Amino acid sequence: MTGKKLFLTCLSAATILWLGAATASAEQILKSPDRNIIITFDLRNVKGKPNCPAYSVSYKNRHVVVDSCLALAIKNAPSLEAGFEIIKVSKSSNDTVWSPVYGERNTIRDHYNQLTVDLKERAEPHRQLRLTFRAYNQGAAFRYTLPGHGPVKDFVISAEKTQFHFTADHPAWAVYSAQGKYSKVTLSKIKNNCERPTTIQIDDNIFASVGEAGLVDYARMRLSPAKDRPNTLVSSLAGEVKAVAPFKTPWRFVLLGDTPGQLLERNYLILNLNEPCAIKDTSWIKPGKVIREVTLTTVGGKACVDFAAEHNLQYVEYDAGWYGPEGSGQSDARTITLDPKRSRGPLDLHDVIEYAKKRGIGIILYVNRRALERQLDEILPLYEKWGIKGVKYGFVQVGSQKWTRWLHEAVRKAAQYHLMVDIHDEYRPTGYSRTYPNLMTQEGIGGDETSPSNTQTLNILFNRMVAGAADNTICYYDGRVARNASHAYQLAKAVCFYSPWQFLYWYDRPQTSPQKTGGAGGAKTGIGNEPELEFFDHCPTVWDETKVIHGSIGEYAVMARRSGQNWFIGCMNSRQPRTFNVPLEFLAPGKKYIAHIYSDDKAVPTRTHVRIERFAVDRDTALKMAVSAKGGQAVRIVPASTDDLEMFLKYKAQDN
Predict the structure, then answer these.
(1) Alpha-helix residue ranges (DSSP H) falling in 40-119
(2) Contact 324, 338 (CB under 8 A)
(3) Contacts of 605 (CB under 8 A, 6+ apart)
């Protein structure tokens, strides 16, 4: 090596070392791949406390979250919140594409830039803390890690002090239980324990949703106002967290978009913040449509099986009462013992299972948490032996680390026995269905059981559905449909409300089902033969592509989803009549399609008053959707055959 080359090599190495030293003492900046989102990290003096970790997030040159502190309170020890120095900084990038077992889209890009900052307390005992930040094109995410090589080994997190400090008293949509009613308030009016994700309107063109991802063995986070800082939300944990280092917390995220609809289109960020699928063979995991059997009888079960087979549903679910009173600790979920308050039977469940199997229909069983907590390890292998396809976990306990850990373990155990799961009541997803896709869906939503107005439903759509799949328990013939919205609006829910297990006809029963059972099942409504039911028959539950064409929280939504070559559109409206222009430019070029359009029309002489029209369309077509203040519209678009086009040309000539 010449002297000149040696000098340049030494200079290069020295420059790298010098830059590394500078990086470890200066403000850290992380940009998303498209450079629209910028995360800034620094150590700041906060209320007399030096060197506190703090971060900021901007979107398209607009500050969203600013100078927000990051801290953990440790039981019987000082909080990890101040007096730090940066000992190491590293950056990395990821750009991969993965395919979910099912979802709202058939491929997902996991593209981000990452910043890892290692901190150490300057004072003894020199505890260490690692902060990991990710900047996606869809939002910002971060989490805490307590490394195993520091002085902290076994510890208890008594509180998390993660701040989200906004620049103004922005409007937000708040709810205080997973199935509660949303209200639009300013940040200053938010009360303690606001449910996540929480959507905030930064301005007319920026919306943010704050939440958590990857919650598996930790206490649930909710959001509360910071008592000493305006326009600031702080994490509120549902109890203490016991941990052993090395230990990583769930991710906290700020999802960002130009519109509320863009937040829905980008909600796969939550899945990207979870571990890849842990189930090697997923062939037994089957999404589908479900009808609830409400009579708890053999005849009623077979009637539901026949209806499901005739109407392209995949599952029949036996709800509470099949093994005894669900609220009783004495009820045995290993037995078929009817709750007399719900049905006198008779019920031969094994006969129904065999009958369903012959017709290609799966049976799902509901089990309340009281039996689950006592008998989980017994009933799961038993149900697999019976031929059951899935279990609906009812009234599960949520929030604390204990029950969070138990519930996710219960999902993993179900996978061992090839059982799919629907979790009901207050559980909200944080993306675990990526890791264990046998977790098909969950409630955590004020669905049709709670009789939401159409305004409330449109609040739910743009807030709760950011978190992922929700079992909305869609009803169709029940009287609440006419009181709260319309039947075309109900059809549209099957498109707009994503759930791999989509429960339809929640309060309804087939006409061949027993009308009187001596129990609670006797008050349900018979399913008719209205022509528009063909929409439910054809509508899938999982999708290859999702688009939000129009959307305003609590006001209206127009969504389009693709399954194979077919497109489905759902339009839901509230408050005032509107007409929406819906260009079909997402259709394949050079192809003709048939649009089957289902609209509200009181002149139609059926009890549901839904008009069906069929038109030839292509990507140059724009639909005009005129809907009432409580109305909606559903559309199914399929490729046209030569015979279809000839038929439409013939009818068009006759009309002229």
Answers:
(1) none
(2) yes
(3) none
Q: Tell me how long the chain is.
A: 656
The 3-state DSSP class for residue 62 equals: strand
Tokens of 321: 């009462």
Match 């549901």 to its residue by tokens.
Answer: 608
Q: How confident is the model at residue 516 (pLDDT cuts 50, 70, 90)?
A: low
What tokens were used for 341? Answer: 């308050």
Q: Where in the chain is the domain with CATH 2.70.98.10?
A: 26-272
Identity of residue 548: V
Q: Identify the architecture of domain 26-272 in CATH.
A: Distorted Sandwich (2.70)
388-404: per-residue pLDDT in tens? 999 999 999 999 999 99
| Cis amide prior to 151 (ω within 30 degrees) | no
Distances (CA, A) of 533 to 81, 479, 484, 602: 58, 17, 20, 17
Residue that the structure tokens 């065999």 belong to:
354
**Helices 487-496 and 454-463: angle between axes, nearest 10 degrees:** 10
Domain 288-538 has CATH 3.20.20.70: yes
Measured distance CA(143)–CA(130) in Å, rounded: 8
Question: Would you state the structure tokens that stand for residue 239, as one six-digit string?
Answer: 């109890």
Distance CA 340, CA 337 (A): 9
| pTM confidence score | 0.94
Collapsing DSSP to helix, strand or coil, 321 comes out as: coil
Give CATH for domain 545-655.
2.60.40.1180
Q: Identify which of 23, 59, 21, 20 has the alpha carbon closest to the alpha carbon of residue 39.
A: 59
Phi and psi at residue 534, to the nearest 5°: -60, -25
Tokens of 578: 């509107």
pLDDT bin (cut points 50, 70, 90) of residue 148 is confident
**Dist. CA 435–CA 420, nearest whole Å:** 13
Q: Which residue has the tokens 């939401």?
A: 452
Q: Within its chain, how far is the Cα of 46 from the centroid? A: 36
**Between 401-416 and 369-386, two packed helices, what is the crossing angle to 10 degrees?**
10
Report which residue type is found at 604.
Answer: V
Q: Beta-strand (E) ranges in 404-495?
A: 420-423, 439-442
| Residue 305 contacts residue 291 (beta carbons within 8 Å) | no
Burial bucket for residue 127 (CB in 10 Å: 0-12, 13-18, 19+)? buried
Ranges for all domains in the chain classified under CATH 3.20.20.70: 288-538
Residue 654 confidence (pLDDT): 52
Q: What is the pLDDT of residue 150?
A: 74
For residue 2, pLDDT beyond 60: no
Nearest to 144 by CA among 81, 96, 210, 190: 81
Radius of gyration from C-alpha coordinates of the chain: 27
- Residue 633 contacts residue 599 (beta carbons within 8 Å): yes
For residue 17, report the phi and psi dihedrals to the nearest 5 degrees.
-65, -40
Q: What is the pLDDT of residue 642?
A: 67
SS3 171: strand
* Closest C-alpha among 176, 241, 219, 212 to residue 407: 219
